[in-house]
């Protein structure tokens, strides 16, 4: 009979139950669950305990559990008190700071239960600890927010802000309320808010109706008289909002009252002023407003008249209004004729030149109305004169801007299209042709980023002046916006077209002399010809754009003529854009990891996550090919989210706890929702924040730096680290390193590749390493491929390295198989799937 057969059914069932409990406890990762001997010595240790406190079982079993307490708590005897309370009360439960293996602290919720044998003897203690640091942080933040809000409300002195209970009694009282209404908090809290209303309003039930309106409509707002403690009245603007519990129960009302007595007094004074001048200004709303006596002499004078005509009131009152007319008009009797028209028809209105005090002329819109007393006697004339010189000039300017670019004065899109249509129609029955020329300035965004938009505008204006000067007969140049220009040539000989293009190119590439600097611009030029390349306007412009984009991507050729193959390339990019979205849906993307190693001591510090795409028909597609297309079609954000989530999920299969470095795209870095995205991914996957490193290129920061800084700071506050990638390849500046919370500088591979042959490269590397040491920021060299490069970097004191010398990018399964990493625990199906997705050797690293 076997050993198992010798056991009875009850005993086997008990063993099965114990095994189940053992597997359950050992598998729990969110709680530290372990046993203590009666004397407090650790006797067991689960996975959650290792994750929470950092000790492996073989490091902690046999040690006293008091080492998790701070030194101060041990001096106070708290560990032994906890065991004693568990024995006395049957359970010990508390919260407090505990220590991890690395010395770090975490806020813990602790439960200790005594465990007894069946005969009543103490077996030991069951101890459960949960890391509540984040909950404590959120609770502290909430309390701080409530405290700040309370101090804010209590400190407001211009507004009376207080709460009413559901029955209308005052529940609290701020300093603004005391200032406005005269009651101290002790005098008013508990009394009904109707004491602020007049006796008539209370009798009419207005206070209760106010509360009922607030409940029915969600808000009550009114202006009216309210009473102070001393019985005096003040004009108040009052708002009442109902406040509800989360469960929908009415908590009470928030009431805000502002003393508007001063504003009301000003309003009343304004009305008095308006009444005094009603006869003068009734129906008249223009600028220079004054009265004329029946004989045409000026009776009064307002500020608008002084501004328009230059006379002070004392200089003009009593003089005849004909002084404002031109000499020839006075001689022709025009001033009196205008008064006669006003009397005959009830109004004179006209426009003409008028004179200022200094003799200058302005174009005036004039209205003259006769003013009569109630008995019909003529009091005089109300006269309004409006200076419309600027409006006339503005109208002309508006007409100009409707057909011209506001910054450069070049023709705009609308005028260009009209001219193009005219030219296309003109060559329909002739041997002439029409060429459209699309122009895009090279590096214009970089000019704006480096020198500011003011310098960028100077560049555009100076180039526009050059283009205006070179335009000849049957030639046309316009600006469509930004750094986008377009030109057109109506021509017969190819030589004429070549000459025009040559003049354009020279104007766009000759050095500019600006106020503070000189710079040499550049331009990409695309040409399409009617009727050879297109039969109608839209296609012609589209084809010249395609040619321009080809020129922009070309290293040497900056003038390209349209070729039919360009349409095919455009169609291929559109097809790839659609395939990218399909790839996201069907799981065609997968991840590779490239090892990162510390130099001293030599050890693995982490793995950079690299994106790969296996197309079902085209096979492996280089990230250098599909990433630009993903950015154009808007898929880069979704791809970035997919990489982050899957990298964190796969990283949880590594028991050696290496960091993973995930690249952030500029789109992600400029979206504040990225903060919640990172927080949610860490929570959903269970990856500790300290195992996540996010890499950003400096070029991704040049847009909205303030927003990027906020996002990086919030993510770093979670515990993740931040690295600046490809440092030295673009916008690298000390200002960036000073402003942003980087933990690591990744030295661009271009300097490492030249390290063996270029003194300048070695000097640059040495300078960046010195900078990293001075800033206490780790420096990682990318692209290390030879032992000689390794030796130089070690000699210069480089902290970390990455490159083919240490390992090519590989999947988790390949790393587990080729490197014998027992720490990678992949299910068989996952290994098989990852093996199918092996990348080709030499595939360029790509980053989302």
Give a written overview of the molecule:
The chain has 848 residues and is α+β, with helices and mostly antiparallel strands. It is flat and about 125 Å long. The chain has an eight-stranded mixed beta barrel with strand order 20-21-23-24-25-26-27-28, surrounded by four helices. Strands 14-15-13-18-19 form a five-stranded mixed beta sheet, sandwiched between helices. Helix 21 runs antiparallel to helix 22 (494-509) and helix 26 (636-651) runs parallel beside helix 28. It contains 35 helices and 28 strands. Helices cover 44% and strands 23% of the residues. Mean pLDDT is 84; it is low at 1-7, 12-17, 278-285 and 820-848.
Structural class by SSE content? alpha+beta
Q: What is the CATH top level name of the largest domain?
A: Alpha Beta
State the shape: flat
Say which CATH homologous superfamily of the largest domain is assigned: EAL domain
């Amino acid at each position: 009979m076997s050993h198992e057969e010798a056991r009875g059914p009850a005993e086997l069932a008990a063993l099965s139950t114990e095994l189940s409990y053992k597997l359950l406890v050992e598998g729990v990762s969110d709680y530290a669950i372990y046993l203590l001997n009666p004397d407090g010595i650790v006797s067991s240790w689960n996975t959650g305990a290792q994750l929470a406190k950092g000790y492996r079982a073989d490091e902690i079993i046999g040690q006293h559990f008091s080492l998790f307490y701070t030194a101060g708590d041990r001096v106070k005897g708290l560990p032994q008190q906890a065991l004693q309370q568990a024995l006395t009360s049957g359970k010990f439960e508390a919260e407090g700071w505990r220590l991890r293996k690395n010395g770090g602290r975490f806020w813990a919720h602790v439960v200790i239960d005594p465990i007894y044998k069946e005969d009543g003897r103490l077996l030991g203690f069951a101890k459960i600890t949960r890391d509540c640091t984040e909950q404590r942080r959120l609770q502290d933040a909430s309390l701080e927010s409530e405290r700040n809000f309370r101090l804010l409300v209590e400190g407001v002195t211009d507004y009376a802000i207080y709460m009413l209970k559901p029955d209308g009694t005052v529940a609290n009282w701020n300093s603004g309320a005391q200032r406005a209404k005269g009651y101290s908090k002790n005098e008013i809290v508990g009394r009904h808010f109707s004491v602020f209303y007049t006796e008539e309003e209370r009798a009419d039930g207005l206070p209760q109706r106010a509360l009922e309106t607030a409940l029915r409509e969600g808000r009550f707002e009114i202006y009216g008289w309210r009473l102070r403690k001393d019985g005096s009245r003040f004009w108040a603007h009052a708002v009442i909002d109902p406040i509800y519990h989360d469960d929908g129960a009415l908590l009470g009302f928030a009431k805000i009252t502002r003393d508007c007595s001063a504003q009301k007094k000003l309003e009343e004074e304004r009305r008095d002023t308006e009444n005094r001048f009603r006869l003068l200004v009734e129906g008249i709303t223009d600028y220079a407003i004054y009265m004329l006596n029946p004989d045409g002499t000026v009776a009064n004078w307002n500020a608008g008249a002084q501004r328009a005509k230059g006379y002070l009131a004392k200089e003009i009152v009593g003089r005849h209004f004909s002084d404002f007319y031109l000499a020839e008009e006075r001689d022709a009797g025009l001033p009196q004729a205008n008064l006669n028209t006003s009397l005959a028809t009830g109004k004179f209105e006209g426009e003409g030149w008028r004179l200022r005090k200094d003799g200058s002329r302005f174009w005036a819109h004039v209205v003259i109305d006769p003013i009569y007393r109630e008995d019909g006697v003529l009091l005089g004339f109300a006269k309004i004169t409006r200076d419309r010189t600027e409006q006339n000039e503005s109208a002309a300017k508006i007409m100009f801007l409707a057909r011209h670019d506001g910054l450069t004065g070049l023709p705009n899109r609308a005028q260009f299209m009209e001219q193009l249509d005219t030219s296309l129609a003109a060559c329909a029955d002739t041997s002439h042709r029409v060429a459209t020329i699309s122009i895009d300035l090279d590096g214009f965004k970089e000019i704006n980023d480096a020198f500011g938009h003011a310098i960028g505008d100077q560049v555009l204006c100076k180039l526009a002046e050059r283009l205006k000067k070179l335009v000849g007969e049957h030639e046309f140049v316009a600006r469509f916006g930004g750094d986008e220009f377009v030109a057109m040539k109506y021509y017969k000989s190819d030589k004429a077209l070549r000459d025009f293009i040559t003049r354009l190119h020279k104007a766009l590439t000759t050095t500019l002399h600006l106020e503070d600097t000189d710079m040499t611009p550049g331009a990409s030029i695309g040409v399409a010809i009617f009727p050879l390349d297109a039969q109608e306007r839209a296609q012609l412009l589209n084809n010249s754009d395609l040619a321009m984009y080809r020129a922009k991507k070309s290293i040497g050729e900056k003038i390209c003529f349209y070729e039919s193959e360009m349409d095919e390339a455009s169609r291929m990019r559109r097809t790839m854009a659609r395939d990218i979205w399909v790839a996201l849906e069907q799981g065609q993307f997968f991840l590779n990891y490239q090892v990162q190693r510390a130099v001293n001591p030599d050890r693995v510090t982490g793995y950079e996550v690299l994106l790969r795409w296996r197309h079902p028909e085209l096979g492996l597609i280089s990230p250098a090919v599909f990433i630009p297309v993903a950015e154009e079609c808007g898929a880069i954000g979704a791809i970035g989210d997919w990489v982050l989530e899957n990298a964190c999920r796969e990283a949880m299969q590594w028991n050696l706890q290496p960091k993973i470095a995930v690249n952030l795209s500029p789109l992600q870095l400029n979206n504040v929702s990225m903060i919640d995205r990172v927080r949610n991914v860490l929570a959903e996957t269970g990856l500790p924040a300290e195992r996540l490193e996010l890499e950003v290129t400096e070029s991704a920061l040049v847009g909205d730096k303030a927003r990027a800084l906020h996002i990086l700071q919030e993510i770093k506050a979670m515990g993740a680290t931040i690295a600046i990638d490809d440092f030295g390849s673009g916008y690298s500046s000390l200002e960036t390193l000073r402003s942003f919370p980087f933990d690591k500088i990744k030295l661009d591979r271009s300097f490492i590749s030249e390290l063996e042959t270029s003194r300048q490269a070695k000097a640059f590397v040495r300078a960046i390493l010195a900078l990293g040491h001075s800033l206490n920021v780790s420096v990682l060299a990318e692209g290390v491929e030879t032992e000689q490069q390794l030796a130089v970097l070690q000699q210069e004191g480089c902290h970390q390295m990455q490159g083919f010398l240490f390992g090519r990018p590989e999947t988790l399964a390949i790393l587990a198989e080729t490197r014998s990493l027992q720490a990678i625990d992949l299910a068989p199906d996952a290994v098989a799937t990852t093996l199918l997705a092996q990348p080709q050797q030499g595939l360029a690293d790509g980053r989302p």
